[in-house]
Amino acid sequence: MPELRRFLMDVVFDDAAARILKEEDWWFESEEGALLKWHWPIGLIYDNHTISASARASSAASIGTGTGTAPELQITPLRLILHLASPPTEKLLLPPSAEACKQAFMGQLKEADFIRWGNTKRMTGLRKAEQDGIWEGIREHNFDDYWRVASKIVPTTVPATRPSSPPPSSSASAHARPPSSDPQNAQDRDGAYNVRSVPVRLYLPDGPVIQDLAPPILEDGTPNTLTCYLSTHLPLLFPSQGPAPDLAFPLVQGIILPPETEMGWLGACLAGADGWVNVCVGLLQ
Asked: How much is the CA Rg of the chain, to the nearest whole Å?
């Protein structure tokens, strides 16, 4: 916001206009009229934009065949409209301040931490300087500063071994796994397939957000896959049985994921900076 204000002062407003401008009243929407929520990561916002643009393009020239094949995504710039007054506060949920965004981001980190391990000991165990540092890394676009702290709370991407049976789901103490001083088994304990659940949310076009537990290992000891998770929660769009093709596709970080993608790998490799895997669901026309 300060950068935008400086730009507006240079090319649009004079000092008199600047005195009545209030940044807390600013808000954005896309050219299509979609409201940009302050607490959504930019990658999630752009994935939603990509799905919307692809859906519009399919109206004129079909990009999906309706036979379960992935569409040709429309990669277009995300053009925004800045409004300087009358924010729809009931929809924005957060004011456009850096402190509000920081609190929302830290809250998402703690929630993801609890879903993975059954507690928030990793997050609460961070020093104040580390908690501030992880946010500063985001704000300053400095991955090294962010990852210096984030690597202490997220699962490792390449676990040494996968467990032969799923982790227990009822005992929170079994997942109390702050960083260990025992380096020999630390990789196994911190592995992507040893978390209690993968923090994941499903975003439907103009619909609700679905959130449920996503264990990396199923009860039969096999890895949980994206197609299994989608067919469980969206069976009409992703049928698991019979010859019916999928009627939708999953998009994460700009990638249409193959159905055999394992949830454990997804949680370790394609989670956002706040620890969440945001799966946008696009419809095949």
From this structure: 21
